[in-house]
Design goal:
The complex is a heterodimer of chains A (about 425) and B (about 250). Chain A has about 425 residues and is of the alpha+beta class. Chain A folds into two domains: about 5-50 and about 290-430, no CATH class; about 60-285, no CATH class. In chain A, about 55% of the residues lie in helices and about 15% in strands. Chain A has 13 helices and eleven strands. In chain A, strands 3, 4, 5, 6, 7, 8 and 9 form a seven-stranded mixed β-sheet that branches. In chain A, helix 9 (about 285-325) crosses helix 11. Chain A is elongated, with a radius of gyration of 32 Å. Chain B has one domain (about 5-255): P-loop containing nucleotide triphosphate hydrolases (Rossmann fold, 3-Layer(aba) Sandwich). Chain B is globular. In chain B, about 50% of the residues are buried. Classes of the chains: A alpha+beta (about 425), B alpha/beta (about 250). The structure holds adenosine-5'-triphosphate and magnesium ion (MG). Magnesium ion (MG) binds near residues 47, 93 and 169 of chain B.
Chain lengths: ~425, ~250
Amino acid sequence: MKLFDTIKTANHNLFKSKTRTFLTILAVFIGSFTIIMSNAVNAGVNDFIDKQVASIGGDGFIEVMPATAYNQVADMMQGGAKVKEYDEKSGGSILGANISNADFEKLKSVDGVKNLEVFHMLSTEWMRLQGAEKKYNVNVEYFPISGFNVDLSAGRMPDDNSPAREIIINEDWLEPLGLKNADDAIGQTVEIAIKQTAKCYIQPENCLAIVSGTIVGVQAPGVLTMDGDLHVNKAYDNELYELSMEGIPEASREIYFVIGDVEPDKIEEIRKAYRELGYEFITIDDTVGMIRTFFDAILIVFNIFGGIALLAAAIGIINTLFMSVQERTREIGLMKAMGMGKGSIFFSFSTEAILLGFWGSVFGIIISMVIGTIANNVAHNTFLADFPTFQLVIFNPLNMTVITAIIMLIAFIAGTAPARRAAKKDPIDALRYE
Amino acid sequence: MEKIIEAKNLTKIYGKKSNKFTALKDIDLSIYKGESVAIVGKSGSGKSTLMHLLALLDKPTKGTVYIDGNDASKLKNRDLNKLRNERFGFVFQQFFMNSNDTVLENVLLPLKIAKKGRKERNRLAKDALKVVDLEAKEENKAINLSGGQKQRVCIARAVVNDPQIIFADEPTGNLDSATGDKITDLLFDLNKNKGVTLIIVTHDEDLAKLCGRIIRVSDGQIISDQTVRKDSHQKASERLEKEAARVKKANREK
Ligand SMILES: Nc1ncnc2c1ncn2[C@@H]1O[C@H](COP(=O)(O)OP(=O)(O)OP(=O)(O)O)[C@@H](O)[C@H]1O
Ligand SMILES: [Mg+2]
């Protein structure tokens, strides 16, 4: 038979027993849909991350911590901390691992480090517009923001050299603070309350310090606002920190994290130098890498699900074809009697198997694309409304071709046993079969 | 005369040990080009078995079949397939059609296997259907045909590849005498005008008498081999016409 005839005949034969074929294709479809869809979502997420990383900048931003703390966190993420011998220098807990002032100076002097500052973990209680009744939970932080591209919808970036206390809020805050729009927010005074740790031991009911500051900018939605932390300038941060630490001697204030700005192309040398000093740092890329690893892990899990579904589908294909061979024993005998070779018979049944795989993945592709398009539309009207260029689901033609090819290969392999049985049938026995 | 098929010491044993059944015993037989051979005998005498062995559809337990003087058991699979596809035409006792395919699809199956193009095979299949008077049914599903129509489709399928030898197992078994005559005419016309060798299994004595040679089989053995005329296809054709006229007359009188 000619190739085209074989394919056409195989397809025709498949759709003779519609229900059985449909169910087998459905099984393949479940697998292919799972794989295609999860890959498309993963592609969307990665694309989102890439674009966001490119947009936020911060190439030289590092977050430094003692290696012991870093490793302990890493251990925990890999399934539980291990029992370790006590080491006086690193202390007994993660929080016990802190950075000495001497080390801080050493870290600062490493070549390529432009700026290094102590990161203050501020335990702020609330924020309100000056004179307003309502208070809102708030987290504020300071880091050298100059390396980042922040999208402002009004005002300017906070000035770290200014002695005035400045803050930028994000658009989510406008309504709670009773502000009409972003422009309306500029120049407004806010009050932030912070716990004074030492005082709280003595007077728990009255240990809040209130520090006022000026809103100088409103940030448009973006990655930097996703954690909800508001950005303050150095003066505001210092004031809040000093008040929260009031009564605690300078010497016993511990440094847990150091943040800094380094030359991006020297990051790997700096990492080496820091390791020798017993420190590790995380860059934006590292953080993004962790997010990516997380999504890749999810992808792997989904691909495994898809793979299991395909395995079940392969068994379905084997079963379907064995039934088909059984039913068409006579037809096979007839074709053999008329001079069809073993190879051609094998090939025609294999073609049926391959077609089952093919149709399953084609339907997988079609349904994924329909659902993907709907999902993209829904996302654009809801949670991705602010990111018109982002797509939740991205379909990559090459990816889909490869997936289809793999599924067809699996189907072919599944079809070999029934196809071989068909090819081996003896024409007379097959013709006598009732 | 040119030997086209020769069988030596053909023995066919079905089953094993206690179930052993010898369907054919030591058959020696030569069939010449252009002959029309009838194989007759009681039911179960081994006619179909013999035909299948001669048509190389089955392998003998003992003995050899020669095609054009060559040992068939030594043929390569490929050549064997080609031989059956291009030079043989088959009519099986139980029709054997793909009942869910159309009549046309069934008839063109040998051509499809022969890798003929779509146009050519459609044309040839339609021609073959015209000969058996079924061109009106070409798009019908085979399952919806009457018994006689099915038989005619099988005849069309057997001749569609323009074979040199036609093996027909009870080709008129399911037909009324008028249609049966038509099929008979068709087969003998091929024999007469194209020199097609006919090997017809039948228990219809009238049909057997039309053939140039009658081989009688009983209990797996040839009990008589009667050649009416050696140069069968020339002279037999004249006899055929006479016989056909007689048969038709007899049928009309019935
Ligand atoms: N595959 C088989 N296994 C066992 N016995 C078989 C097989 N095929 C045929 N036989 C036996 O061989 C004998 C000859 O069978 P065959 O089909 O050749 O008879 P036949 O002469 O064609 O009969 P009919 O006129 O009824 O078609 C029968 O007794 C049959 O039962
Ligand atoms: Mg028979």
